[in-house]
UniProtKB/TrEMBL annotation:
The lineage of its organism: Bacteria, Pseudomonadati, Pseudomonadota, Betaproteobacteria, Burkholderiales. This is Carbon monoxide dehydrogenase subunit G. Residues 158-169 have a biased composition (Low complexity). It comes from the Bacteria. Residues 148-187 are annotated as: Disordered.
Amino acid sequence: MDMQGTRQLAITQQLAWDALNDPEVLKKCLAGCDRFEPTGDDTYNVGMAVKVGPVSAKFSGKVTISEMTPPSGYRLAFEGQGGVAGFGKGSSAVTLTPNDAGCELGYTVSAQVGGKIAQLGQRLIDGAAKSMADDFFKRFDNEMQLRHAPPPADAEADAAVAPAEGGEAATDEGAKPGLWARLRGKS
């Protein structure tokens, strides 16, 4: 299986690089991943549940990063065993190119699968791989928005002291008055 694509990211090249090298971010963004642990220089043990068509399995494996050129990209190799469901192994190249909107992430993946998963047929495998990639990028975009999105334009106005019902500033244990009024539904 071979796959390639690009995604526009609304964050800087450096922020994308940092996130793509953070095991916790990767664990959150890979659906079914319950383990993404460093084991040495640029090597990680990974555990994740994968479902391809009617075949579900818990895969254990490792990811090794190489040819790093911070913050522009790297290559990685992966391999995993899913018991009787089969195995997966392959490599990927990731590039980050800055642009006016943030940066563009480019990727290529070359992978092989074996066992029961391989018996499902190439179209089903390719569809599952594309779905996993789309899900990763959706989760990655959401995580980056949570971590790096600028505050809403009206956040400063809400933080200012605003009179609550009756003309007095409402507070609760040091909460910002604008927020407190909004939480009470009286803004």
